[in-house]
Design a protein that fits this description.
There is one protein chain. Strands 3-2-1-4-5-8-6-7 form an eight-stranded mixed beta sheet. With 244 residues, the protein is of the alpha/beta class. It is globular and about 40 Å long. Helix 4 links the parallel strand 2 and strand 3. It has a single domain, classed as Vaccinia Virus protein VP39 (Rossmann fold, 3-Layer(aba) Sandwich). The chain has eight helices and eight strands; from the N terminus they run ααβαβαβαβαβααβββ.
Length: 244
Amino acid sequence: MAMTSKATIDPREAEHFGRLAADWWNPKGESAMLHRLNPVRLRYIREAIDAHWGSDPRDFAPLKGRTALDVGCGAGLLCEPLARMGAAVTGVDAAPENIGAARAHAEAAGLTIDYRAGEFETEVADRQFDLVTSMEVIEHVADPAAFVRGLVAALAPGGLMILSTPNRTPLSRLAMITVGEGLGMIPRGTHDHAKFLTPEELTGLLADAGMAVSDPRGLSFSPGAGFHLSEDMALNYLLTARRG
């Protein structure tokens, strides 16, 4: 497995998100935006799982017998639904405070999830997973190319990778920083617009690592529909990747 050994964690980012740990599961707290995004992300993930493995959309456990890794898992907002879909889930986060909150919440929910704090390349060294996810994380790492290589190294043959991240556009700056952080809907200091990646940039990093990208979808917002999947990737986007 290719190792980047402490190359991708940005200590300032880990400290920032660690301070949010106690409030992570509060749908009306500082992580409220994540709670609103999560159902839309889960819809995309479920559709990708069904398309990749040919599972029945009505099946409650399409990941039964499969392994999943969520990198930058926070307090487990995605890990828990993946576990309920039947996966043996490993969640890794740079902030120990997040992992503490994740373990406590999973235990209270009766879920068995392998949570680990630290650099994911080290924590899952020499292991590979059927599903690798990382939601709104790559824009916070110190070395995006090394981060992508680490994700690819953790993906089993025939596996599926799903990523999401904000696009680097004037709209994302306005919505996520000026409005989102300015009005307290997102914790101040969460985002650095210069570190956002365009779909073309992320696709290039994945291609350099031997991955083929498909099904890029926008995650958009409108007053009537709220957050929803669309063809407009100006705000935020998701994509799937498989070995080319």
